[in-house]
Each structure stands twice: as structure tokens, then as C-alpha cells.
Design a protein that fits this description.
Chain lengths: 463, 214
């Protein structure tokens, strides 16, 4: 049942966000200012101010992950020549266009590297080559003191791994503030290279997002198959570039917070979070727009399919999270298990178990049936839950850092989530994000009105 | 199947070829869908549509109720998870029932132990003999295995397959159901089936009607 490209299925130029965006703007800015006020109030409390940067990184990564997931969604629709998704694609394109906002939000992070990344304190260039030949000498702190020497940031200390003996006798890796013995890590984990790398990722994302947006919007005016062919031609290259930069951004932003730790799975873990949060955001955007009487073309059939993808990526996240955990837990190598050790001790054990239930078991059981996927209200509820647990997942990734690094900064361990501070950042960045998404969608139709596969999408049905 | 295979003595009522139902042929899926709605509304149950490719909206036009297969698959999957965990608990996690029998009288142990093979707790990689993270991959695989079995064989069973004969095979024209024609078949075994009236309904559907006889 192919669709002739010339068939006019719908009236043109009726689906615009301008009126809704005008109403949404003040609300978004209220959220922004309320969030900023909340952050400012929280920062008055010294114990909370200590984790200001970490909370900001969580919020930044949350909205970056939605943007990247939406970019992935847009590109893969062209890659597989999907017909069903045409009526929801423009909204995803609008979400992916937030790359520019994310770049702006990233700039403050450049000033926060010292408080987030131990490698920012490594002295570069002047380390003695001979030092790298010596294997790391385990140094057991006497009597359980976290570390018995003063290490001032920027001063080259003898490369070494400080191993801390915990009361129950298990060795916990607690180095990482100190320069890593591997010279290649010194090259990679340096501030200039970090800034250039991230800048390059943003350029690539910006190019991909704008290319697919511009061609898609141009098609609204001219129609025809030509622009679709061009987007499809570019989609494999865009997908490869996205896959590499997305994985690397996960490594750079989150994994290097613990530069001694490594997991080759981590890039995929970050991608799983991107994809699941983007699907959830797409559901919420569609639901919000439909409540305004916009894009009536989106039917339960489309919700069903976006819901299926959301469900699939919830399961994918669990699969990846477990694969990463099990290999490290089974191998039980000190430099690897330290990362998980911090997350199964103290208050974080509860968060870990809660994540297993909240990010997998509960959504799995609640969304496995087609019943909730075909009911926009229920699906939107599920999407909100998924976004919430994704936020907690990012806190779980960011907050429990090596205690001796935090001690070097003169800070205590970040014990449990401080909801108020994180709520403040969520509101502030969320307000900006919603406002910018609406702004992105201005000036274009809310569905690709003359996409050659529009007919397939309008009559889409699930078997 | 030809008429010659039906022995007269086993089917005393049938004097000629046995009437099995009607087959209506359509040239396009839209005509088929419209006709299916009429057959559905007439209340037939032993009837079906045959198309060379999936036709959107046909399920609704035929009044097909949602299948219970997902629940069967879910039950089988949950059984697989539980079974996989119990299997590992039994084989590597505990020494039951052997150790339990040993604590009973020697005679019972002697008699029963060959029939109740014991698990063999074996420490691997310094992990507890029963430790859930290590057991998840096996539980996952048994879940997938039983789910796949339930989905595949459950689908066959719910469709009444395998089946070696269907009245539509009596028609030569039906071969085009795999190519470019769309068919509705109404079987004579349907309780609502009345040869004359069903034929009238078939004629009113706008397709080419074939009587199925074998």
C-alpha cells in the first residue's frame, strides 16, 4: 500500500505551536526562576553547597540525555525508512534541536571540572617517565584513616594506588585523586583535550540535528521524495557519528569522575538512558500537545509504538546495567569493584536496590501489556515515572565519588540525594528546556505535512 | 483431497461429493474488508479470510477478539524464571535431598538415594554457592526458552495447527490466495450455516462465489 508522494492527505499549515508556546513561556520561566531561587537558598547551607556542581552535572546530563535520545530517534527513523513515525517525528526533531541549549548549559561545567573530576588536579607534562615503569604500590592506610598524607591539587605526587582497609577487611580502592600511572590517561584526561573533545561532540550533534531539522522543514514547503532520499542517504553516516560521540560523551562526562575505573559497557549504559528518557519525553510532549488540541493526527497506534520503544529501552537499560554489574562483580578486580562498592554501601545500597525495582521491575510489569501503551494518559504517567527514575539513575552515577577525592576538596561524602537542591536544578534547567523546545518548534508545522510516508503514518495500525 | 478418498460406506449420508462450504473471491483488500464485516454481522464463527499479505483493519472487520496468547507466554516466562532459579538452587545451591536423607535412617537413604540425585554445592570464584547475580543469566535463558516455546506452540495450538485438510483446498482458485487474490471461506460445519441462505449471503458480497465440495 505505497503512498503516492503527491497525495494531499491533510490540510496544510494548521498545526502550529505558536499560541501554545506563548502560554507555555511564562510557565517555563516561572519554573526557571523558582528553580534558581531554590538552588540559591540551598547553596546557603554549606553542607549542600558542597555538592552544587555534582547536582548541576546530574541535571545537565538529564537534559542532554533527552536531547541525544531524540536525535537518535530522528536519525533511526530515516535509517530504517519508517512510515509509522512520521506524525511524531517533528516533535522529536524539536527535542533534538536542544543541542544548542545543551552546549550553553555545558559551558558552566568547564568551570566546575576541578570539583567533579579528579583528573583536573593531575599535574600534566612534568611527570617523570621513570615513575610510570614502577607498578602501583599498594599503600594501606593505618587504622582505617582515609589517607595519611596531604596531597595538594596540582602538585605531582609519586604515582601510587592508595588502598584503604575497611573495617570488615575488604580492600576498597580509594586512590584516584593521585595521578594515574598510565601516561595515556594523562593525555586523554587533561582539561584542554576534555574541552576540545566535548566541543567536537557538540558540533557533530548540532550538525546532525540541524541537518535533519532543516531538510524536514524544507520538505513542508516543497514536498516530494527528493529531500527524504537525501536524509536517508545521510542517516547511516549520522548514526555512526552519533554512536561514537554519544558513547564517548558518556565516558567523558560520567565515567571519568572516577578516572581509575573503567567499563567498556558504560557508553552503552549512557545511551540506554538517553534512549529511554527521549521516548518518555516524546510521549509527554505528544500528550501535552494533544491536550491543547494540537496534532490530532497522533492516535493510540502511535502512542502504542512509542510506548513499545520506551518499554524496550527500559528492558535494554536493565540488560546493560546488569551485564556491566555482573562482569565486574564476578571478576572482583579491585580497581573495578570500587565503583560498585561505593554504591552498595551506606545509604547507596538502598538506592541501588530501589533502582533495580524502579527502573526495571515496576515499569516492566506495568508496561508489558498493550493496555497502558494504548492509553495516552496511562502512558504519560509511565513516562513521568521513567523520567523520574532516570534522574535518580544519573544521581546514582554522579554522586557517590571516591571519598578521598572529596576529602581532598575538603568535602564530606555525598551520602544520599538532597532532593531540594536537585529539585532546584531540575526546575531551572527543565524550564529552560521546555521553553527552548517550544521555541525550536516555532515557525514549522508540528508534523511533517508533506512527507511522502505521511499517508502510511496517518493510517498506521498495530496488528 | 479428491472425492475418491471419501469412501461411500464411511459416509452413508453423502451420495455425491460432500458440501464443505463456500469460498468467495475478491480482487482487492478493501472489498474483502467490507465483505468480512457482513459475514461477521451474520454471526458466523467457522469462517476465515485468506490474504497474500496482512491487511490492516481486517481483524476488526472480522470481529476477532484479542488473543490470550500473551498471558500464556507471560505464564510460561515466569515459570522459566522460577524454574531456572530452582534448578540452580537444587544443582549447586543445596545438598538436598541427599543430606536430609542421610539424617534419616540408613535404610531409607540406601533405598531412595539412587532415585533422588543430590545437588553438588561447588564454590566458584569465591562466590556463595547460591548467589543471585550469577544465577540471573541462566534464569534469563530459561525464561526466553519457555516464552519462545509457549509463543510458538501456543500459537499453533490456538490456531488449530497442524491441520492436514481444510475445505478451501477443494478449490483450484484458492491457490491465488498466496499471490494476488483475497478470499473468504465459510465452512459448512458452522452452526449458522444453511446451504441456501449462506449461498445467498455469499452472492450478495460482490465477489466470485465457489462452492466447496470434496
Amino acid at each position: 500500500m505505497g503512498a503516492p508522494a503527491t497525495t494531499q492527505e491533510i490540510t496544510l499549515g494548521e498545526r502550529r505551536i505558536e499560541a501554545y508556546a506563548a502560554r507555555l513561556g511564562p510557565k517555563a520561566f516561572t519554573a526557571l526562576f523558582a528553580g534558581a531561587l531554590l538552588v540559591a537558598l540551598c547553596a546557603l547551607k554549606p553542607a549542600w553547597r558542597e555538592r552544587l556542581e555534582a547536582s548541576y552535572l546530574v541535571a545537565f546530563c538529564f537534559f542532554l540525555s533527552i536531547t541525544l535520545g531524540a536525535l537518535f530517534f530522528v536519525v533511526i527513523q530515516h535509517l530504517v525508512k519508517a512510515g509509522w513515525s512520521v506524525v511524531v517525528r517533528r516533535v522529536a526533531e524539536g527535542l533534538s534541536l536542544n543541542v544548542g541549549l545543551c552546549l550553553v548549559l555545558f559551558l558552566p561545567l568547564l568551570g566546575m571540572t576541578g570539583a567533579l573530576y579528579p583528573w583536573a588536579h593531575w599535574a600534566h607534562g612534568d611527570h617523570a617517565p621513570a615513575a610510570h615503569d614502577t607498578p602501583p604500590t599498594p599503600h594501606v592506610g593505618p587504622g582505617g584513616t582515609p589517607h595519611d598524607r596531604q596531597h595538594s591539587p596540582g602538585v605531582e605526587a609519586a604515582p601510587g594506588v592508595l588502598t584503604q582497609s575497611s573495617p570488615d577487611g575488604r580492600a576498597i580502592q580509594a586512590e584516584l585523586v593521585h595521578p594515574h600511572p598510565s601516561p595515556s590517561k594523562h593525555t586523554y584526561l587533561s582539561f584542554p583535550f576534555f574541552a576540545v573533545r566535548l566541543g567536537l561532540y557538540f558540533v557533530i550533534w548540532w550538525l546532525i540535528a540541524n541537518y535533519f531539522w532543516a531538510k524536514s522543514v524544507a520538505q513542508d514547503a516543497v514536498g516530494g521524495i527528493e529531500l527524504t532520499n537525501r536524509m536517508q542517504w545521510w542517516s547511516p553516516a549520522a548514526m555512526i557519528a552519533f554512536a561514537i560521540t554519544c558513547a564517548l560523551s558518556g565516558f567523558d562526562l560520567l565515567m571519568t569522575m572516577d578516572p581509575g575505573w573503567y567499563s567498556t559497557m558504560f557508553g552503552v549504559y549512557w545511551f540506554a538512558g538517553c534512549a529511554v528518557s527521549a521516548m518518555a519525553s516524546l510521549v509527554l510532549c505528544l500528550f501535552a500537545l494533544q491536550r491543547q488540541g494540537l496534532i490530532k493526527e497522533v492516535t493510540p497506534e502511535h502512542y502504542h509504538d512509542v510506548g513499545k520503544l520506551m518499554f524496550a529501552f527500559v528492558v535494554f537499560w536493565a540488560y546493560i546495567a546488569f551485564s556491566q554489574f555482573m562482569l565486574i562483580w564476578y571478576g572482583n578486580i579491585p580497581e573495578e569493584v570500587g565503583w560498585y562498592q561505593r554504591r552498595v554501601t551506606g545509604g547507596w545500597l538502598g538506592v541501588s536496590v530501589w533502582l533495580l525495582l524502579g527502573h526495571f521491575v515496576i515499569p516492566f510489569l506495568c508496561m508489558i501489556s498493550r493496555y497502558p501503551k494504548r492509553r495516552p494518559g496511562l502512558l504519560a504517567l509511565g513516562a513521568m515515572w521513567v523520567l523520574f527514575v532516570h534522574y535518580v539513575d544519573l544521581m546514582w552515577l554522579v554522586l557517590p565519588q571516591p571519598e578521598d577525592f572529596l576529602a581532598e576538596l575538603g568535602r564530606g561524602p555525598r551520602r544520599s540525594p538532597v532532593p531540594l537542591l536537585d529539585l532546584g536544578f531540575f526546575l531551572a534547567l527543565g524550564g529552560l528546556f521546555v521553553w527552548n523546545t517550544a521555541r525550536n518548534l516555532k515557525g514549522a508545522s508540528l508534523i511533517p505535512e508533506r512527507d511522502p510516508r505521511l499517508r502510511d503514518s496517518l493510517h498506521h495500525e498495530n496488528f | 483431497m479428491s472425492a475418491s478418498t471419501t469412501a461411500p460406506e464411511t459416509a452413508p449420508v453423502a451420495v455425491g461429493p460432500q458440501h464443505l462450504g463456500v469460498l468467495i473471491e475478491f480482487a482487492d483488500p478493501d472489498a474483502l474488508t467490507r465483505a468480512a464485516e457482513k459475514v461477521r454481522d451474520a454471526g458466523f464463527t467457522k469462517w476465515d479470510c485468506h490474504t497474500p499479505f496482512p491487511v490492516h483493519g481486517l481483524d476488526k472487520a472480522m470481529g476477532i477478539k484479542p488473543t490470550i496468547l500473551p498471558w500464556i507466554v507471560f505464564g510460561a516466562g515466569a515459570t522459566g524464571t522460577l524454574g531456572g532459579l530452582i534448578l540452580q538452587l537444587y544443582t549447586n545451591g543445596i545438598e538436598l535431598p541427599f543430606s536430609m536423607l542421610q539424617s534419616t535412617t540408613g535404610l531409607v537413604s540406601e533405598v531412595l538415594s539412587p532415585f533422588l540425585p543430590s545437588g553438588y554445592p561447588y564454590v566458584v570464584s569465591g562466590k556463595p554457592v547460591f548467589s543471585v547475580p550469577a544465577n540471573i543469566p541462566i534464569a534469563f535463558e530459561t525464561t526466553v526458552l519457555l516464552s519462545a516455546f509457549a509463543a510458538f506452540f501456543g500459537m499453533l495450538a490456538l490456531n488449530g495447527l497442524p491441520r492436514f485438510f481444510h475445505p478451501v483446498f477443494a478449490s483450484e482458485r484458492f491457490r491465488r490466495a498466496t499471490n494476488d487474490r483475497f478470499f473468504i471461506s465459510i465452512e459448512a460445519v458452522d452452526p449458522k450455516y444453511d446451504r441456501k441462505r449462506t449461498r445467498e449471503l455469499a452472492d450478495s458480497l460482490g465477489g466470485t462465489v465457489d462452492e466447496l465440495e470434496a
